[in-house]
Each structure stands twice: as structure tokens, then as C-alpha cells.
Amino acid sequence: MRVHPTLVPIEHPLASVNDVFNAILVEGEPLGQVMFQGPGAGPGATASAVVSDIISIVAMLKIGGTAKAQPKKLNPLLACSHQHYCKISPISDLLSRFYVRVIAHDQPGVIGKLGTCFGEHDVSIESVVQISRQRELAEIVVVTHEVQEGNLQQALAEIRTFKEILSLPSLLRVL
Questions:
Q1: 67 pLDDT higher than 50
Q2: Which of 138, 129, 128, 173 has its CA nearest to residue 152?
Q3: CA 70 to centroid of chain Cα atoms
Q4: pLDDT-above-70 percentage for the chain
Q5: In terms of Cα–Cα distance, which of 173, 147, 156 is closest to 95?
Q6: DSSP letters spanning the chain
Q7: What is the pLDDT of residue 1?
Q8: What is the pLDDT of residue 128?
Q9: Confidence class of residue 72 from pLDDT cuts 50, 70 and 90?
Q10: pLDDT (tens digit, 9 = 90+) per residue, 102-157?
Q11: Cα(96)–Cα(103) distance, rounded to whole angstroms?
């Protein structure tokens, strides 16, 4: 299981979730993908619930904070008790597609150097587009095929050392 911001294609059902509605996409074998959608609480109720949770946690910490005080149990709605059968995978093992935005000096060979580095780290590229030129700078957008996050992070660490690269301002997962 993972939760993170992700770019979603406009034709995907998650792209149609708007306003106070929430949705969750579940994928598994043999079912495939299933999406659950319903109205959320809205901004006021959500803010109130978050503040209430924080106050409850602080109260429990304060009550259990002294040696003489008997620690109370945390509200069960604020605690997770499923650790005994869950295994958390390292994020470096997770598979995803990625959108990477690179700002570089606009000179020959930069895109080739990026491609070679990605290839050396087993990152397969779906598309590369140079989308603008300003003051002899190139904005390069790379979308990868599905890749292990650890491989992508190793490639990006190396790319950050290239003298032609000024910054990597955006890195987003893509559904």
C-alpha cells in the first residue's frame, strides 16, 4: 500500500473526483482495479477532526508523561494495531512511472547524457521532450516507464552532479 501525490491521466476514473468527494483505488489479484468514491467531510469538518485528533494525542501524552501517572491507552481510532501482519516495503523497491523535469544548459549532448545515465541505472524512458528555451536554458521533461524507485533515485543522484544540469525542480509519480 502507498499513498502519495500522483499525476493521473485525464481519462482515468480518479481524474473525475472533484470538490468534497474522496476516492480510493484498490488493485489486487485476481480482482484487478476497484475504485470507491463518496462525499468527504469538506474543509470545516476536516479541520475540526484534525484539531480534535491533535488535542487527543497531546492529552494522552501529557497524562502518560510522568513516572507516577498511569499511562492511558490511546484512543483506538488514533492507533493502528495491524503491524503484526504487515510488512512495510522499502520505498526503493516500489514500482512506479515518473515525471522528471530538468533545467539544463541548452547545449548539444545533454539529452543523450541523461538517456545514457538513466539506461545505466535500468530506468527505461517513455518520452523525452524539450519544452522551452529561455536565456540559453533548456527545460527537459522525461517520463519513465515503470521502474523501481531506488534505481531512479540513483540515476537522479548522478544526474545532479552533471555540470550541464542546473536543477531537477519536479519529480512526480505517474499512474
A1: no
A2: 173
A3: 40
A4: 82
A5: 147
A6: -----EE--TTSGGGG--TTEEEEEEEETTTEEEEEEEE--HHHHHHHHHHHHHHHHHHHHHHTSSSSSPPPPPPGGG----GGG--PPPGGG-EEEEEEEEEEE--TTHHHHHHHHHHHTT--EEEEEEEEEETTEEEEEEEE-SEEHHHHHHHHHHHTT-TTEEEEEEEEEE-
A7: 57
A8: 97
A9: low
A10: 999 999 999 999 999 999 999 999 999 998 777 889 999 999 999 999 999 999 99
A11: 23
Q: Contact, 124 vs 147, CB < 8 A? A: yes
- pLDDT value of residue 83: 60
Which amino acid type is present at position 101? R
The answer to whether 99 and 141 have CB atoms below 8 angstroms apart is yes
CA distance 39 to 63: 36
